């Protein structure tokens, strides 16, 4: 009995990298390797490899290897094609259509990609390919899978990716440790682990004229981001994960690096930072429609309050005001108001609230406890799990106390500050946002924000009409 055995498919592998900016064709060997594995799985025989080092299939420039591949197909040298992805074969609908015609003519059913088989002789296969083509056409070169793949490959090899400024602590080659800066990194890490605030470390660095790698003063946020980088532990990070040991030497230990990340990414710190951003929430109204303004950054990220129209919002959508100068202005107005005789008279006879003092003391105490705990963790006196366990009840106490405090008479927020605005002004920046908000809200009922003047780009205080509470 004769068993019909289909002759092995004689396949060509086609590979292309379209954006070869770094001057190496790292992606091509990887594409070919993936296709070879696929061929092995399918039992195909690879008879030829075609590699176009193409800058862009968009330009319509001739791709010699693609041409050769088509010729070999037409000549019957090949009867199958392997590609990493179909968009490597064609990136223009015109090319795809020509290829579909060729497949039909040759009855070429064995076209496959790492992503899946494509039979361009059937209507479904053609439909599929056209959809893929349309998607690929929308994808910009930079965002394409090839480039992502290339970055991934570098990451998993522990190599650095190009671009970006010189990392602090390393020379321009990003590989050699710059000892004069490495000592600063080590110093900052041990200070953070000992519980010192980033702000205070920055102040000290800037006082000593220790600058960033671009010669600028340190800011708490950028210092925090810097210290959290796995790079300093000689680790290569990719998309937020440590994926390999890096090709450059470490400056600090992996354990210290992980501890700094645990400390600085404490969700509570993050929440505070986000909350801190909008002081006047619930205190602003639209002068056009009377709705409350919503905190919402403008395009480009500048903080703003806006009257928002659309699902879930009932505003007119016609008004927006920059947050920074508005907040400064309102705070100044509130501080000024605190020193006026009217306010003192309005509050006279209010005995204040002893409970408020008690709850505030509870909050301050719990904050201190939490900081001590972080410092203990930093000094390795307790483990990470002990730290988490001990923190939970403290945080519950803080939440509870904040809730109680919120229930109390608003004017208690002003205790001690009336007639004493100078002192409050000097303290202001150090107060938590909730406290600042409570003080502002105790004096101010709301501010009506009028429409901006056309063509007037600076802050315009004549738009603001405050309605004082006391
Ligand atoms: Zn409005």
Small molecules held by this entry: zinc ion
Mean pLDDT: 79
Strand order in the largest sheet: 2-1-3-4-5
* Rg, Å, rounded: 32 Å
**Structural class label:** alpha/beta
* Basic shape: elongated
List segments where confidence is low: pLDDT < 50 over at least 5 consecutive residues. Answer: 20-26, 267-276
User: Which range does the strand content fall in?
Assistant: 5-15%
How large is the count of helical segments? 17
Largest sheet, described in full?
5 strands, mixed
- The count of β-strands is 15
* Fraction of helical residues: 40-55%
Gap between N and C termini? 104 Å
Explained architecture:
The protein is α/β, with parallel strands linked by helices. Helices cover 46% and strands 13% of the residues. The protein contains 17 helices and 15 strands. It has helices spanning 27-42, 64-74, 86-89, 93-106, 123-138, 145-156, 179-193, 198-207, 220-227, 254-264, 267-275, 323-338, 341-347, 354-378, 384-407, 421-427, 433-443; strands at 10-16, 45-52, 80-83, 111-113, 116-118, 235-238, 241-245, 284-286, 294-295, 304-306, 309-310, 313-314, 320-322, 444-449, 464-468. Strands 2-1-3-4-5 form a 5-stranded mixed β-sheet, sandwiched between helices. Strands 8-14-15 form a 3-stranded mixed β-sheet. The chain has a 3-stranded antiparallel β-sheet with strand order 9-10-13. α7 packs across α10 (254-264), α8 packs across α9 and α14 packs antiparallel against α15 (384-407). The longest helix is centred in the C-terminal third of the chain and has 25 residues, at 354-378. The chain is elongated. The model is unreliable at 20-26 and 267-276 (pLDDT under 50). Bound molecules: zinc ion. The site of zinc ion (ZN) has 9 residues, from loops. Residues 286, 288-289, 291, 307, 315-316, 318-319 line the site of zinc ion (ZN).
């Amino acid at each position: 009995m004769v068993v019909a055995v289909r002759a092995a498919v004689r396949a060509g592998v086609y590979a292309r990298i379209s954006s070869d900016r770094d001057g190496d064709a790292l992606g091509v060997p990887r594409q070919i390797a993936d296709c070879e594995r696929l061929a092995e799985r399918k039992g195909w025989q690879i008879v030829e490899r075609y590699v176009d080092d193409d800058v862009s299939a968009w330009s319509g420039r001739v791709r010699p290897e693609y041409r050769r591949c088509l010729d070999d197909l037409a000549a019957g040298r090949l009867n199958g094609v392997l590609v990493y992805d179909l968009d490597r074969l064609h990136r223009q609908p015109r090319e795809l259509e020509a290829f579909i015609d060729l497949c039909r003519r040759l009855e070429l059913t064995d076209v496959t990609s790492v992503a899946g088989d494509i039979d361009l002789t059937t209507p479904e296969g053609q439909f599929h390919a056209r959809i893929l083509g349309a998607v690929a056409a929308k994808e910009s070169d930079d965002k394409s899978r090839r480039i992502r793949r290339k970055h991934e490959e570098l990451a998993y090899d522990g190599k650095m990716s190009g671009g970006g400024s010189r990392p602090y602590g390393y020379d321009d080659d990003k590989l050699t440790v710059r000892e004069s800066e490495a000592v600063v990194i080590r110093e900052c890490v041990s200070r953070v682990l000992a519980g010192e605030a980033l702000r205070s470390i920055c102040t000290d660095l800037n006082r000593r004229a220790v600058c960033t790698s671009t010669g600028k003063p340190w800011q708490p946020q950028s210092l925090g981001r810097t210290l959290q980088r796995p790079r300093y532990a000689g680790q290569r990070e990719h998309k937020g994960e440590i994926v390999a040991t890096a090709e450059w030497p470490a400056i600090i230990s992996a354990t210290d690096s992980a501890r700094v990340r645990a400390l600085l990414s404490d969700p509570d710190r993050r929440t505070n930072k986000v909350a801190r951003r909008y002081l006047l929430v619930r205190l602003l109204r639209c002068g056009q429609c009377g709705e409350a303004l919503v905190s919402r950054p403008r395009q480009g990220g500048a903080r703003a309050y806006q009257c928002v129209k659309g699902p879930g919002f009932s505003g007119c959508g016609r008004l927006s005001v920059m947050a920074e100068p508005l907040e400064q202005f309102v705070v100044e107005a509130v501080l000024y108001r605190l020193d006026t005789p009217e306010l003192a008279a309005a509050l006279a006879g209010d005995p204040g609230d002893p409970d408020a003092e008690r709850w505030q003391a509870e909050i301050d105490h719990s904050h201190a406890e939490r900081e001590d705990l972080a410092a203990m963790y930093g000094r390795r006196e307790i483990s990470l799990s002990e730290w988490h366990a001990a923190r939970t009840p403290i945080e519950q106490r803080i939440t509870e106390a904040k809730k109680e405090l919120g229930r109390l008479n608003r004017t208690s927020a002003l205790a001690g500050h009336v007639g004493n605005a100078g002192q409050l002004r000097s303290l202001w920046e150090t107060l938590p946002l909730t406290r600042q908000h409570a003080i502002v809200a105790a004096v101010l009922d709301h501010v009506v924000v009028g429409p901006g003047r056309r063509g007037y780009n600076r802050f315009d205080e004549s738009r603001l009409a405050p309605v004082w509470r006391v």
